[in-house]
Amino acid sequence: MAELAARHGLTVSGARPSLPEYTRRLWGRRHFVMAFATARLTAQYSQAKLGQIWQIMTPLLNATVYYFVFGVLLHTKDGVTDFVPFLVTGVFVWTFTSSSVMAGTRSLTSNLGLVRALHFPRATLPVSYALQQLQQLLFSMAVLSVILVCFGQLPRASWLLALPALLLQSVFNTGLAMVMARLASATPDITQLMPFVLRTWMYVSGVMWSIGHVLHNNDLPHLALVALECNPAAVYIDLMRFALIDSFTAAQLPPHVWLVAVGWALLAGVGGFIYFWQAEETYGRG
Question: By residue range, what is the domain housing residue 70?
Fold first, then answer.
């Protein structure tokens, strides 16, 4: 029967295409990806009275809590110039990554009916979810800009560096979302574990405190120092702070930061896409 099917050009339903063909099919559905992401963003807060305002209020409320707990009670603001812009920028950039990871984790398990009913590149789902988080961040960036201006950070040429920084972070987040989508599809319990993993990752990413102070004021093992410096979340946060905050722009950004940012984006983006594609035939089964 297999020989007969092959002779007449029949293939297995849902069989995984080659990587180039899979990429072509995914690109062919780019309009669906954009429309799906936009529809989800619009519907996300449709039941709340404040609606889309919560896109901005959530990271702002988190930043307020972190300011009082870490900045005031634990004194992490000591020695950090422009602490409020420092903190708010870190929270907004970190929220982009953490939300993308959580969204990617749920992208397949929350759409099993769609996955089982239709044939399409499954990567469209985690990519759409990651794009939704990017759209949400772009709304938040307008508010972040107002906050920065209120605290004396006036627009300047270095703000343009935020664009390549966000592009690299978006590629990284999308790749990580695809990795988590595949893992959660095979092991749904990962969805329950991820908030604890992300909270731990946040605490070591310099969102509420300066990694530079830790590196200079603590006698940590060499591997721990390297891990802090190359932590992808911290790298993308540093790039945004360097672009937007005067006191960071005046300081010399270590030359490795942009290289590490590009490396993480390529590793997660390309590696995550291939890793997701390899299990294309398994999604929606079981």
Answer: 20-276
- The C-alpha atoms of residue 97 and residue 10 are separated, in whole angstroms, by 42
From CA 273, how far away is CA 175, in angstroms rounded?
6
Domain count, the chain: 1
In the block, tokens 């954009």 appear at: 34
Q: Is the pTM of this model over 0.85?
A: yes
Inter-residue contact 237 to 105 (CB < 8 Å): no
From CA 56, how far away is CA 124, in angstroms rounded? Answer: 26
Q: What is the pLDDT of residues 91-113, one digit of tens each?
A: 999 999 999 999 999 999 999 88
Does residue 283 lie within any of the structural domains? no
Q: At what angle do helices 232-244 and 256-278 cross, to 10 degrees?
A: 130
Torsion of CA 146, 238, 254, 229, to 10 degrees: 170
Is there a domain that residue 95 lies in? yes
**pLDDT tens, residue by residue, 117-156:** 888 899 999 999 999 999 988 888 888 898 899 888 889 9
Q: CB pairs under 8 A, 24+ apart, for 260-263?
A: 260/229, 260/230, 260/232, 260/235, 261/165, 261/168, 261/169, 261/232, 261/235, 261/236, 262/168
* Spatial separation of the C-alpha atoms in residues 134 and 128, rounded to whole Å: 10
Distance, in Å, from the CA atom of 198 to the CA atom of 29, rounded to the nearest integer, reads 31
Return phi, psi of residue 77, to 5°: -80, -15
Domain assignment of residue 225, yes or no? yes
Q: What is the 3-state secondary structure (H, E, C) of 81-125?
A: CCHHHHHHHHHHHHHHHHHHHHHHHHHCHHHHHHHHHCCCCCCHH
